[in-house]
Design a protein that fits this description.
Helix content: 55-70%
Largest sheet: 3 strands, mixed
Number of strands: 3
Order of helices and strands: HHHHHHHHEEHE
Number of helices: 9
Distance between the termini: 49 Å
Strand content: 5-15%
Radius of gyration: 26 Å
Strand order of the largest sheet: 1-2-3
Length: 318
């Protein structure tokens, strides 16, 4: 049975608002879970003085707080386009991504400082079983948040939310590294705690590198080439489309927009060419996930010996 669907503007807006609402819900739930996790670990840091656990706690707290810039971005993304921001405010998610990068970098710097300070002034780690329990708490909290963020992020098409989920998953494994600190201390190695703290710092820097790559690609309008291939294949199946010219896709927040030129019979009337363009847009909306709008330009097929109708624009090319 076919499911009724619509591509009316109002329905697109409703879908966009619904996806933003789901993203907001995922953020606040994960903020609560990670907040409780970090708070529990912070109490244990005070009791034990573990800098490895301190680094993990700071990172978990920073990860929880990344929900705030993402939440602001989701709220801004709901606002309608204006004559100044003609594409709307969806790119606020990219700005949120930059804030997240800075937060991760700051947590890495703090963890490194605490570990180096403890290397210079070693102390005996106390309540080892409590430190080990805190590490397990950190892993469970982060893994739950990671699964939730990744699932919702993929469903609504938010790369920022997926990346934040992967970040949380990596944080979970750095929490388990604290177990090494407790194990080393149990064997009498006083430097185990600060050394594991430095290892956690290195892990945070690896996360920072991967997150920076994702944010850079989004800021530079990178898309998965498979999406471009799917769009071209869909367009070439549309009756009346003889070829596909320039095709561009870009993410605006967690939604895609497309601009494409299709080649049609030059003898078609304006109305007929427009119908082909509408059919082409319809095909794109079905073929490309998360695509909410497409601007389709119909170019007449060149006749043998005919001149390119775009010649008059050649001196404006960049």
């Amino acid at each position: 049975m076919l499911k009724p669907h619509s591509h009316e503007a109002a329905d697109k807006v409703d879908t966009a608002l619904e996806s933003s609402a789901r993203g907001m819900r995922a953020l606040w739930i994960s903020l609560a879970v990670l907040g409780v996790t970090a708070a529990a670990q912070a109490v244990i840091v005070v009791l034990t003085g573990s800098v490895a656990l301190l680094g993990d706690t700071v990172h978990n707290a920073a990860d929880a707080l990344t929900a705030i810039p993402l939440g602001i971005a989701f709220v801004l993304g709901r606002r309608a386009a204006t004559r100044r921001f003609t594409y709307g405010y969806g790119r606020a998610e990219d700005l949120a991504g930059i804030v997240i990068l800075l937060t991760i970098a700051a947590s890495a710097a703090f963890a490194a400082w605490a570990a180096v300070d403890r290397l210079l002034d070693p102390r005996t780690l106390e309540h080892l079983w409590v430190v080990a329990a805190a590490a397990v708490i950190g892993f469970i909290g982060n893994e739950w948040v990671a699964r939730y963020r990744i699932r919702v992020g993929r469903e609504i098409g938010s790369a920022a939310l997926v990346a934040d989920g992967l970040h949380a998953r990596t944080d979970g494994f750095t929490s388990l590294a604290v177990l090494l600190s407790a194990g080393g201390a149990a064997l009498g190695w006083r430097l185990a705690d600060p050394i594991v703290g430095l290892l956690i710092t290195a892990a945070i820097l690896l996360v920072l590198r991967d997150a920076a790559r994702e944010v850079f690609r989004r800021v530079m309008d990178a898309v998965d080439p498979a999406l471009v291939d799917a769009a071209e294949e869909a367009l070439l199946t549309v009756p009346g489309v003889r070829g596909v010219g320039e095709l561009r896709l870009r993410w605006i927040g967690h939604r895609l927009r497309a601009e494409v030129a299709v080649v049609v019979d030059g003898e078609l009337s304006v109305r007929e060419a427009h119908e082909v363009a509408v059919d082409a847009e319809h095909a794109l909306l079905h073929a490309v996930p998360k695509l909410t709008a497409a601007l389709v330009h119909a170019d007449p097929a060149l006749e043998p010996g005919g001149s390119d109708p775009h010649t008059v624009l050649a001196h404006h090319g960049g």
